[in-house]
Amino acid sequence: MGKSLYFKMAGLCGSSFYHLLFILIFLAVPILSADAQEPIKIGAGLSLSGKYEEPGNMIKKGYQVWAQETNRNGGLLGRPVELHIIDDRSSIGEARRIYRHLIEEEQVDLLLAPYGTPITLAVSEITESAGYVLVSGGASGTEIWDRGYKYVFGVYSTADRFFIGFIDLIARKGIQNVTILHEDNPFNNEAALGAVEWAEKMGVSVDQWVGYNPDITSPAQLLKGVSFSDDEALILCTYPEEGYAFLQALSTKEQQPSAICMTITPIHPLFSYKAGAMAEGVFGPSQWEPEERIPYPGTREFIRAFRNFTQMTPSYHAGSAYAAGQVLSRAIEATQGLDHSKLRDYITAMDTVTVIGRFKVDMYGKQIGHNTLLIQWQDGKKEVVYPLSMHTAKPRFPVK
């Protein structure tokens, strides 16, 4: 209502009551406009303490940088995004409680995924039942996508493919045997089984294959029953807390393996600092690396934004979290809304490139377009050593 129209109508009314009424109507116009800018509420449970806190905190920072950059560029659907992240303390039970709370009590518009296959398996039961899209930038166990669910999507290459590059390299090097040790949980079981299958395909003999429960058996106890030959590599499938303990226990053994490859632990920027001398030469499968020579659109900008925000270098966990946000953003902008069934259909058909590489899923949401890299710690820093077309350094092996 224009001001001239207001004054004419107020004058015709000739009463203080109607005068006040028209003032209130007039003032309501900008109030309604402000309501249209209400934030899009986005919730997540993350392991900010406990067993998974190292990758969990990286994912949190990745989500925060995505939200910051999204708001800097005008938000989603013309609205700012607002994150509400709660610590699940690396507990499946606590994660379940958090996601129920976010859906039923806070009634958030969108959800972001937790960290890790075990927790994602649990909370995706809740999000699937509620009809919420969940783009997972922190889990790779194929069990998540073997249930016929329609609303959960993976960003990572799956766990069974983690060690393809490492096994290919040791086979080329002539290392003929490998020992595989793994924690007994969905992600690490699958990563270990995948390593066994790829070793058989590439002609590498699996000398020892041992699973263990970290609540019962310590790395030092497990390694007492394991011996290494001069022609043997070691694959460790663990989460970071156990990974560092394994390296410490391994440092006391007289006979060392010819090469070591570990899940998750070596990709963290502080690995060399935490692992000390044992870090040198360690390999690790990585979903992405903060290497500006890797030619994905937006990679350089993300790395710089992350460093400016956190004063840290991102790990692949941070990059994957940001990529999950990109996928969600593109689906929202394409469908012009927050209808989860429409978002689900769009993401299922999506074939795009994020800051960490290609995103394409099968009909059940399992990632089929993205492939892992292999890094190695050399002279105190990470180098990409596989695939050869993207390497920043050649792999190093001990001279026998």
Assembly type of the chains comes to single chain
Whole-angstrom Rg: 25 Å
Assess the beta-strand content as a share of residues: 15-25%
> What is the topology, as strand order, of the major beta sheet?
7-6-8-9
Order of helices and strands: HHEHEHEHEEHEHEHEHEHEHHHEEEE
- According to DSSP, the number of beta strands is 14
Q: Note the main sheet.
A: 4 strands, parallel
Number of domains: 3
Class by SSE composition: alpha/beta
Helical segment tally?
13
CATH architecture identity of the largest domain: 3-Layer(aba) Sandwich
First-last Cα distance: 85 Å
- CATH level-1 class of the largest domain: Alpha Beta
- Low-confidence segments: 1-15, 17-35
**Residue share in helix:** 40-55%
Question: Which secondary structure elements does this structure contain, and how are they paired or packed?
Answer:
Layout: H1 3-13, H2 16-35, E1 40-46, H3 53-72, E2 81-87, H4 92-105, E3 110-111, H5 117-130, E4 134-136, E5 152-154, H6 164-173, E6 177-183, H7 186-201, E7 205-212, H8 219-224, E8 232-237, H9 240-250, E9 259-262, H10 271-275, E10 283-286, H11 299-310, H12 316-335, H13 340-349, E11 351-354, E12 357-360, E13 373-378, E14 381-386
Helix pairs in contact: 1-2, 3-11, 3-12, 4-5, 12-13
